[in-house]
Design brief:
The chain has 465 residues and is mostly helical. The chain is built from 15 helices and no strands.
Length: 465
């Protein structure tokens, strides 16, 4: 039974009394909310920020002119001492520099404490959804509202997957670019010692220094890409504290998952059923199809034929579209005033465009997934393997004194560049996989990404000697 209560007007109060009441309510309610709201703390400028980890940049090389010996006797003394130092190691220059790098003046303390568990993709998605209440469906939603949430959810999952893939691959690439730079440093240091000993010219040393400078720039660029990718992922996960973002980087896996043996469209899907699956996955397209069927059912077939004939006549009468901007014209007022026919015509045309776009997206996304898979397999099974075998052959020839230290270092640099190319190819595959899964979940296909230029830029570095 409904109960009716008599309405009573509110008591009149002065502006001062209202302000006092508002302040009192804020004093009671706001402190409790502020203490428990992470978002309020993040948005408050007074919240103290945690100190970010200092950015460690690799040291730059030196281009200062080396001190040359004043006379022949001094030159012979330097040359003899350098060669005696190298002779203490079985493989000469390379072993000498490796020993020096492992025996610095001060020992570096080993990291202590347990490492956090790696953050996999499923955990990252759950963390991100805590900050996206609009992606939760509700019991009182209609079909249109639920479909919109489903599409938005599929987009969000794709964005998180791609951000996670980018962050993992960027950190791995940064590590490899750091190793590449270390190899060029070794060659530059060897060249410097050769100049001091009188066995090299300054021109040869400058070429090695240019190689080191190029590798230094690639190393710094890779670190910047890794930082940017990590920050993008942290934004999607709702992390705002600097130390939390740093911990996120430590929790990322060391590398991306291996590429499967062959790409698969999904359980129960074949090349012949891909387009149908993509059409069924879009909830908004299904609603649009029902609406178009209803509008078309309200108009007779003969009336629609009249519209089709009028449209064809207008298209035939229009001037050459390549030379004029005049659109086609229909002068039959009875057709234009038939509102059910107009609604049916627009609904049919809109449905045809939407269906054509979804089918095209299915073909493009599946083709891109296969192409990225083939590229990743080729980079890993062919290019990287050939570079590893070439480096091993170069090492054997170096041990047999058939090749120089600089040829060995150049081979190592080429192998690391090929490994970075394989990392980028694997990243592109998993990004394409995320796009394909999002399409099957109802989201749109944004289009193929351009392949990363990290491997290409590395390959353009000066090879040295």
């Amino acid at each position: 039974m409904m109960v009716f209560r008599r309405w009573t007007p509110p008591l009149k109060s002065s502006p001062g009394r209202a302000a006092a009441l508002s302040i009192a309510l804020a004093a009671v309610c706001w402190p409790a909310q502020a203490q428990t709201s992470n978002a309020v703390q993040a948005a408050d400028p007074a919240t103290p920020a945690t100190a970010s980890a200092p950015l460690v940049l690799p040291p730059t090389g030196s281009v200062d002119a080396l001190e040359r010996p004043a006379d022949i006797a001094r030159a012979r003394e330097i040359w003899q001492r350098a060669n005696e130092r190298v002779a203490e190691f079985p493989r000469g220059h390379i072993d000498l520099l490796r020993w020096e790098s492992k025996n610095p003046g001060e020992a570096t303390p080993a990291p202590t404490g347990t490492q956090p568990a790696p953050l996999d993709l499923a955990q990252a998605l759950r963390l991100s959804l805590r900050q996206r209440p609009e992606l939760f469906t509700h019991a009182d939603m209609n079909a249109l509202e639920a479909g919109a949430v489903q599409v938005a959810y599929a987009r969000h999952v794709r964005d998180v997957q791609r951000a996670w893939v980018d962050a993992v691959s960027a950190r791995q690439s940064a590590r490899q670019m750091s190793e590449l730079w270390e190899a060029t440093r070794t060659g530059s240091e060897l060249g410097r010692r050769m100049v001091v000993a009188g066995n090299w010219s300054q021109a040869k040393l400058m070429r090695e220094q240019l190689t080191e400078a190029s590798a230094w720039q690639m190393n710094v660029n890779a670190q910047g890409e890794a930082l940017s990718a990590l920050e993008r992922l942290a934004q999607l996960l709702g992390l705002w504290e600097a130390n939390a973002v740093a911990q996120l980087g430590e929790r990322l896996p060391a590398s991306l998952p291996a590429v499967p043996t062959r790409p698969t469209p999904g359980a129960g899907l074949t090349d012949a059923t891909l387009e149908a699956a993509v059409l069924r996955a879009d909830p908004l397209l299904a609603l649009q199809r029902v609406e178009a069927q209803r509008e078309l059912g309200a108009v007779g077939a003969d009336r629609r034929q009249v519209w089709t004939a009028a449209a064809e006549a207008a298209l035939s009468a229009m001037p050459d579209p390549t030379t004029t901007a005049t659109p086609p014209h229909i002068g039959n007022l009875s057709l234009l005033r038939d509102h059910p026919l107009a609604r049916a015509t627009r609904a049919e045309a809109g449905l045809l465009r939407a269906a054509g776009e979804r089918r095209s997206m299915a073909r493009q996304a599946w083709a891109q997934l296969q192409l990225r898979h083939a590229s990743a397999q080729h980079a890993q099974a062919v290019v990287a393997q050939l570079q590893a075998a070439l480096e091993q052959e170069t090492l054997l020839r170096y041990n047999g004194m058939l090749q120089s230290s600089w040829e060995l270092l150049a081979s190592a640099r080429e192998r690391m560049q090929s490994l970075d190319t394989a990392v980028q190819a694997r990243r592109d595959y998993w990004r394409a996989q995320a796009d394909w899964q999002a399409l099957l979940a109802g989201a749109e296909y944004a289009g193929p990404d351009t392949s990363s230029t990290a491997g290409a830029s590395a390959a353009q570095a000066p090879a040295g000697h």
